[in-house]
Structure to design on (524 residues):
């Protein structure tokens, strides 16, 4: 069971203060999490990180440092992004408890998930948030809403551990989850979903539905729709096949039939 | 209702590092708590506390400094002591969620309660723990169980806020936002969904992806995907628009741009 917690990736984007990286590592280790990914950290490795980690140096040593959020999310089937603010486009929004329940459900199915935390002062950009299927908001006092980064990691890691402990004590719920897992086939990963969106955008441009000069909210609305649908690999193959034929049709390159062998 | 959170006292006993006092103040203010009591702190006031408080200086300024735990608890009807270890003497032991429920129940009755946190390295003494009616244990990994002091305050303050939001009967701000989002994005009806499937099938035939003579399971798979996505009316308009343009493209009837006004 413990192995399942290792399928949960904590991703810190563009962190300014190495002390917060150390604090996050300590919070993770306290709650049984181990997989830390740092996207373009400002100052790492660092003595401050080691000091605040207070013994969780194994997590710092094993931390993966990457250049972009995309790299950090490769192989993840579900991505949760922490968000402090209300956004104009409504997005599936969870509180930490709901997030933890969804995380546990996924890892019990053998999938990998990511919890993404933004910069200390600016959080995640809209573009980064659109790479997340779900947004998580920690319900702070609206008059003083900016949590310390390590504190935010602590709250989510704590909720994940609580959900995981509950799942361990309720075999019936696990059995139910496993049955669901068998029913639905393997989910696509975040990188596969990104390739799909790129393909979709290209096709929409080719059929003159999307004007790249005036994209409006079209792609983010489509991301929201497909992002919440838990698309399986088989379904993704179908959608990609449709896009391929759509592009051919738009270019007048119809190839005749024979594509329905799914 | 907010006034009730002011009846919750956070008591830090004999804290070594002033930075932790600042971190605790920030965590409290994030969650709407305000009453901080310091029992014999090693170093306070301190610039380190102000730095880590990150704007929660009003809580530091108003903090009461006392010499003994007894003084800190005057007027409290219920006292919860955090404990990292199992004790030889069995004591009523709560997890943070149970503690938060009990705290809220008390303050809703107009009582004052205290959450007591011990020293960074040694926690609370047995004598101090015996002054608490309940012990609270944060369920850490047994192999790495020592939480940072401010992180422990963060977890309990967060649980208190969650319980308080539930007690208010309008759970999280998120739930409210979600309700708004759902209201403003009315779901499609079954008949609208059927029209969409008919349109989708027609488009797939036009782009030569679907062979009507050999349809296989294609449409049922797509029905399963879109059927579980709870498509809104706005999203349906987008999907129908895409299909219309796809059919035009397949027929060589590109109309130029101007369809992205969504």
């Amino acid at each position: 069971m413990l192995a399942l917690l290792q399928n949960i990736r904590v991703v810190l984007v563009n962190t300014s203060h190495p002390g917060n990286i150390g604090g996050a590592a300590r919070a993770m280790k306290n709650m049984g999490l181990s997989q830390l990914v740092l996207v373009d950290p400002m100052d790492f490795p660092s003595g401050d990180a080691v000091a605040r980690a207070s013994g969780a140096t194994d997590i710092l040593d094993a931390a993966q440092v990457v250049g972009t959020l995309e790299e950090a999310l490769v192989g993840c089937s579900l991505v949760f992004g922490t968000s402090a603010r209300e956004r104009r486009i409504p997005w599936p929004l969870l509180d930490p408890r709901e997030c933890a329940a969804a995380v546990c459900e996924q890892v019990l199915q053998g999938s990998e998930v990511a919890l993404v935390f933004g910069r200390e002062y600016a959080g995640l950009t809209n573009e980064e948030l659109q790479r997340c299927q779900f947004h998580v908001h920690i319900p702070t006092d609206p008059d003083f809403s900016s949590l310390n980064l390590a504190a935010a990691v602590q709250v989510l890691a704590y909720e994940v551990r609580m959900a995981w402990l509950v799942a361990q004590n309720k075999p019936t719920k696990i059995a139910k989850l496993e049955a669901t897992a068998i029913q639905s086939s393997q989910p696509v990963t975040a990188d596969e979903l990104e390739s799909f969106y790129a393909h979709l955008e290209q096709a929409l441009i080719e059929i003159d539905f999307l004007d790249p000069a005036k994209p409006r909210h079209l792609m983010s609305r489509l991301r929201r729709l497909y992002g919440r649908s838990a698309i399986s690999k088989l379904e993704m193959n179908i959608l990609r096949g449709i896009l391929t034929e759509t592009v051919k049709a738009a270019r007048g390159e119809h190839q005749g039939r024979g594509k329905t062998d799914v």
Observations:
- Chain B touches chain A through 83 residues (CB under 8 Å).
- Residues 173-184, 257-262 of chain B have pLDDT under 50 and may be disordered.
